[in-house]
Amino acid sequence: MQEQGHAIIPSSALVPENDPTTLFTGSGMQPLVPYLMGETHPKGTRLANSQKCFRAEDIDEVGDNRHTTFFEMLGNWSLGDYFKKEQLPFFYTFLTDKVGLDPEKIYVTVFAGDEGAGVPKDDEAVSIWQELFATKNVSSEAAFMGTEEEGASRGMKDGERIFYYGDKNWWSRAGKPANMPVGEIGGPDSEVFYDFGTAHNPAFGEHCHPNCDCGRFLEIGNSVFMEYIKTEKGFEKLPKQNVDFGGGLERIAAAGNGSSDVFTVDLLKNVIDQIETLSGRRYEEGKGAFRVIADHIRGAVFMIGDNVFPSNSEQGYFVRRLLRRSVRYADLLGVPEGELKNLAQSVIATYKDYYTNLAEKEQSIMDAIHTEETKFRTTLENGLKRFNKISVSLTVPVIQKDGKTTVDPSKKPTATKRIGAQNAFELFTTYGFPIELTQEIAKEKGMNVDMEGFEKLMDEHREKSRAGAEHKFKGGLADHSEKVVEYHTATHLLLAGLRKELGEGVHQAGSNITGERLRFDFTYPEKVDKEVLTRVEEYVNSAIKAGASVSIDTMPKAEAETDPTIEGSFWEKYPDVVTVYTVKDNEGNIYSRELCGGPHVPDTGAIHGTFKITKEESSSAGVRRIKAVLE
After folding, report:
1. Which of 221, 356, 415, 494 is least buried, going by the fewest C-beta atoms within 10 A?
2. How far apart are CA 590 and CA 446, in angstroms?
3. Which pLDDT score, from 0 to 100, does residue 356 have?
4. Residue 625 near residue 526 (C-beta atoms within 8 A)
């Protein structure tokens, strides 16, 4: 894209900066939303990159030929510069002339319009596509599909290559045009699919069509045209129209190889080959398990490389889930214990020249993966034994005597095939089984899980934990004396300073405050440099010297969770209405804005002494601890 005057920008981190509304960066567009909404980008109006992405919602889909949790998205953007007549040729030329795809196998979809909302169908994109296909002597009749169900019912006719669909080919943050509020921008998009020519699976509908999920067609790119703004009078054209393009790197590579299986591309094949060697089995003998391991190890490597370590909360939970699923499927294939770290090394070797942070953190990544595997294996064996006992007891009458389970011959076997809520909860709390793992094993045995009952037990468990941790939750205060309160407000300033210096991934992990000192635990994977600690001290002391006011606001928790200016830890422990403390000086500079139960000083001038960090050390895996005093 540099040939067309695009500035190449770096990939953003997998954990979004300054965006608490989502756990991960899931598209190339996500980090650029402020600029698509009107802010000026320092690199200009034409941008391009390869963005690393993670979609947690696709974990359960991994195992087919095309879904991955981690992937790279090729992107280019026009910020009020070029539009459809430039963008569509850019992509088509790239696919046919650079990648070398057969134009006869390229199909596209466009927006069918929404008469009720007053948005016309995208005939302009159709005309451009027809001109492009004509340059390759490819027929390109347009046809109406509407919905995926209508497409499956109608099917495709000879010569048809461009298909009108409804809401599926419309983009806005609010969804379809009718759902958009006044002031929201949106527009049609044009998706490109590659036809691998595989036989249609009628389980996905009577006929095949580009949006069919049978595997014949693979979406490889999508150009979004932010063309409209919704006003009180209806939809009007934006004065400056933007382009957002995203194309899956692995999918485009798979199309270039002529294979519908993205796991055969070079970026994943190294890991697949290593799994074959370790397991003594061929990929064709267990594709689903091979794909899960390869995808999950790659995802875990990139997450840990971005300082997201296995844990039981937020982003870390998904790293833990990826690795524990990897252990489970590695065992099914016969991969020896302790080899996940070596598979991780293979991933790093593939990517380290481009993502240099992986090479720099190679040992810590491998150590974290090995530690998580070891930790899980200590409970996995016993958990599986317990699961088997539970499953047997559901279908075969048994007698419990002297700690042993034996079949009761006086009773007939039952047809019960449901893992009860209490059993699922026991597997979770005692054996560390994520509920998803229990569901997977149950499915393998033809059973299901009482999820409604499990969630009720989990809610009760959280409520007990909340009540038991209430003293700690209120700030870990020894008492509410004047000095303790001063230290409490200083702790908020400390967290704000740490987040300023170390990034938005830093959150509170615990605290203990007395009248003599404060102790503060925070999420961060490595030792903090002395120079950084000095700057944090300076930040806190500058806030103290400013005599900034400390104000309190009450608001619904749901509102606070979506406010990017509010920092919060342990969200699940707060009630539906929360209090937010803001430390702000007379000039409007905000030093700290954080969820808290109080108490605090009325202004930072009431904090006596100079803030001094006395020690920084490890608290636990992925958590650091600071001790500080007011001298």
Report:
1. 415
2. 56
3. 87
4. no
Please list the residues that pair with 194 across neighbouring strands.
106, 218
Q: Exposed e or buried b for every residue in 417-449, given b needs 16+ CB within 10 A?
A: eebebebbbbbbeebbbbbebbbbbbeeeebeb
Would you state the pLDDT for residue 472? 31
pLDDT at 249: 94
- The per-residue DSSP string of 442-482 comes to HHHTT-EE-HHHHHHHHHHHHHHHHHHTHHHHTT-BS---H
**CA 470/CA 476 separation, integer angstroms:** 9
pLDDT at 570: 62
Residue identified by tokens 């430039």 is 86
CA 496 to centroid of chain Cα atoms: 25
pLDDT the model gives residue 416: 54
Q: What is the pLDDT of residue 412?
A: 53
Cα-Cα-Cα-Cα dihedral of 45, 48, 52, 56, to 10°? 60
Residue 190 near residue 129, CB atoms below 8 Å: yes
Report the distance separating Cα 323 and Cα 317, nearest Å: 10
Query: How far is residue 126's CA from residue 115's CA, in Å, rounded to a whole number?
Result: 18
φ, ψ for residue 58 (rounded to 5)?
A: -95, 5
Tell me how many degrees the CA angle 277-279-281 measures, rounded to the nearest 5: 85
pLDDT of residue 605: 92
Instruction: Specify the pLDDT at position 316.
Output: 85
Q: How is residue 340 written in tokens? A: 């996940």
Which runs of consecutive H residues, i.e. helices, occur in 15-122? 33-36, 84-93
Asked if residue 103 has a cis previous peptide bond (ω within 30° of 0), the answer is no
> How many angstroms separate the CA atoms of 583 and 166, rounded?
48
Strand partners, 616: 626
Closest to 192 (Cα-Cα) out of 290, 307, 90: 90
pLDDT of the residue at 556? 76
Q: What is the pLDDT of residue 467?
A: 42
Strand, coil or helix: 362: helix
> Among 465, 303, 426, 423, which residue's Cα sits nearest to residue 372?
303
pLDDT < 50 regions, the chain: 18, 396, 398, 405, 407, 413, 465-475
